[in-house]
Amino acid sequence: MNESAREKAILDEIKRWEIDLQNDVRTDFQRTFDKWMNRKMGEIPTSMKQVFFKKLDASLFNLHSFIQSSFVQQDAKKQILLSAKALNEDIQQINDLSMLPIDQLHYLADLQTSKHRLYSLLQGGITGTGGILLSGTDIPAQTILNLRSIQMVSMCYGYEINNPYEMMTSLKVYHASLMPKHLQYEQWQALKKEIDLENGMYYFYEGNDELANSNSLEFLVKQIAKLSVLSLFKRKLISGIPLVSIMIGAGANYQLTRQVTDLANKFYQYRLINEKNHNF
Questions:
Q1: Which InterPro entries match (predicted)?
Q2: Where does residue 74 rank: exposed (0-12), middle (13-18), buried (19+ CB within 10 A)?
Q3: Does the pTM exceed 0.70?
């Protein structure tokens, strides 16, 4: 299969995934819970929510910059470049990765996402062992892991993350990936619309830079609820080990990272193929 045919096949896969996103497959319990959650969110004063959203956005911006400039991330960037050079010796920087076939880029991204899913599995299992300190670090640790995984996927498809546009794009991908399935389609369409409007001019970001909203608050509430469930099950010991809470914590965090990395992978695949088609 030649490259153009393979890219078309990937776009067809993404279209089928988009169709699945439009289907609301929530159970009656999930619908009832969502209605209850929306009602509770509506009871919070708007001014209080706005202050919280601004602080959350600022925290995400700072955390993104910290991860990007960390030694761990720089080492990971070098590893990606070394792997890419083994496939094409002409590659010198991250932007050159777009010269590789889409399947090779997918392979590089899959290596990184597999690592982060494993990290998330282990981190969730450790959280499930109990303890106030471990529970208190669960949400920050998950945020760091998932933001970093999106940055890695971005670089694997040839998009450097050290400019304002790429930073905002990766944060918007992160925000969209946290949404429940029945809300992701709208966020996905917004992401596609932005890259279509930019027409390949990616450096300064001129769009809406507000990320957090009521759905973000709802996500945090659900994460706190998960920690509450873990605290209940950590008392149920099997051979002296809180096996049930470990399995719940590991499974929940793994599924979240899988959801994040799946959407990120599809977005950067779509973006790269879309840009190549516009350049011809």
A1: EcsC (IPR024787)
A2: exposed
A3: yes
